[in-house]
Amino acid sequence: MAHMSSIRTLYPHFNDAQLREAEDRLEQYLSLVMRIYERIRSDPVAYDEFHSLTPSADHPMMNQSRSTFGTDANARKPT
User: Fold this and answer.
1) Which of 4, 27, 40, 63 has a Cα-to-Cα distance from 76 of 20 to 30 A?
2) Is 4 strand, coil or helix?
């Protein structure tokens, strides 16, 4: 699933065997996530509960006015 070059970029210090293991574990993880998602989607009660816990695009959880991404808001001011 994942490309070895992508995994190699994330873990440049891994040897080939470690990269193959990382790729295998990523595929196992993604498979598990898909099984969980499919199970929730197939059960209307579980899906309603999941949906109630998940923010919608209309009601984002983060307040954008508080975001400091891309700013120097955390930089020290001269005294």
Assistant:
1) 63
2) helix
Percent of the chain having pLDDT more than 90?
41
Which residue, chain included where needed, has tokens 């005294």?
79
The domain of 42 spans 4-51
Q: Is 78 left (phi over 0), alpha (psi -120 to 50) or beta?
A: beta
What global pTM score does this model have?
A: 0.55
In which element (H, E) is residue 77 found?
Answer: none
Q: d(Cα 45, Cα 38) in Å, to the nearest integer? A: 13
**Residue 62: phi, psi to the nearest 5?**
-90, 140
The type of residue at 70 is G
